[in-house]
Design goal:
With 365 residues, the protein is α/β, with parallel strands linked by helices. Helices cover 54% and strands 10% of the residues. The chain has 16 helices and seven strands.
């Protein structure tokens, strides 16, 4: 029977935040995106009705249309995206041992399919956000143009500086008016509403659908994520008895996973897979606990690690990288039942790994 593993894309598989880079094609677009990303966090944390984490990718649609961004632009930005170290090798190993990898991503379809092709995942195993930009542009009139221009000015003049002061109230007040009062009266508001971003509950729905097709329960799924868009998927898989892995997770994902992996190389995930093969969730957590307790010993003599605690591909990699100062040795943590002090230590480790892997995109939620 097929074994199911679901990966978030941006972070675990590729460092690039594609929407952030696409907004970079617009003058001061990255600054605008950072404000909208924070607004996304605010709406998610207050549990706004009908709003899902990651809906930032619908919020930026009026700006993309206003500035003439095309599907080809998204593809061009995506073409330069790197793959996280070890991802291709990990996918090969997973397939060899009967795993069926899927991608569940908030990313726009052109980017998600581009990364999937690079790592050998067929398009029918990719769940992502569809964005018919050209169709939307044809449907748009100029009724929202002035509103978008005014919002851009306010974002750059008042709201971007508010990020450094953590003035969430100022950000929320202005953007609530723009997105939920003014824009809905225009064609751009209609365009924005049409975009159904695969984030939050929609990621969980996708994982459930994948499991059902494989005749598996959610308790038999491994989910890998890193950010606020993944917390519902991670939390549901964890609570059902599956394995939820926060890979270089941020403060929004770590509390919802039962396993933490901080690493610059995805092959380290195969340690958790090895444990799962021996005893599903219990086996995975047992192996992770062994690594927590004996990490220094294992890293000092990688070749001497028991094969039940690390497959050959991992032992070989760790041995080869022992003297490589640019390589961050992996950290494993059992996240269930952690007190705040320990969770703070874990967050700091993941923040470092996240920064090394994702660069500028690491600061986004």
């Amino acid at each position: 029977m097929t074994k199911v593993i679901c990966f978030d894309l941006e972070g675990p598989l590729s460092p690039q935040d594609n929407a952030y880079e696409v907004m970079g094609l617009i003058k001061d677009g990255r600054n605008i995106f950072e404000v909208l990303s924070r607004y996304d966090d605010i709406l998610t944390l207050e549990k706004k009705e009908g709003y899902e984490p990651g809906d930032t990718l619908s919020l930026i649609v009026p700006f993309l249309i206003q500035h003439g961004i095309t599907t080809d632009d998204i593809k061009k930005v995506s073409s330069s995206a790197r793959i996280v170290d070890g991802v291709k090798e990990t996918m090969e190993e997973l397939k060899k041992t009967g795993w069926d990898p899927h991608i569940i991503s908030t990313s726009y379809e052109p980017h998600a399919l581009s990364i999937a092709a690079k790592i050998g995942i067929p398009r029918h195993k990719v769940y992502c956000t569809k964005l018919p930009l050209e169709k939307m542009r044809k449907e748009a009139d100029n009724t929202g143009t002035a509103l978008v221009e005014e919002a851009e000015k306010d974002i750059l003049k008042d709201l971007y500086p508010a990020l450094s002061n953590s003035d969430d109230k100022k950000i929320k007040t202005r953007l609530d008016r723009f997105f939920w009062e003014d824009l809905p009266k225009t064609s751009l508001g209609k365009n924005m509403k049409e975009v159904k971003v695969v984030g939050g509950q929609r990621k969980m729905d996708a994982a459930s659908e994948i499991a059902k097709k494989a005749d598996r329960g959610i308790d038999e799924v491994i989910a890998v994520g890193d950010s606020i868009t993944d917390y519902k998927m991670l939390g549901t898989v964890r609570d059902a008895g599956g394995v939820a892995v926060a890979f270089n997770g941020n403060q929004y994902s770590l509390p919802y996973a039962n396993v933490g992996l901080a690493s610059t190389d995805m092959r380290m995930l195969l340690v958790i897979i090895e444990g799962y093969e021996c005893g599903q969730k219990k086996g995975a957590l047992s192996v992770v606990k062994e690594w927590e307790d004996h990490r220094e010993e294992f890293l000092k003599n990688p070749r001497g690690i028991d094969e039940d605690l690390a497959p050959e591909i991992v032992r070989r990699l760790l041995a080869d990288k022992q003297s490589d100062k640019g390589f961050m040795q992996p950290y494993y943590h059992v996240l269930e039942g952690l007190d705040e002090k320990k969770m703070e230590e874990v967050r700091a480790i993941h923040k470092k790994a996240r920064s090394l892997v994702r660069g500028e995109a690491a600061k986004l939620g």
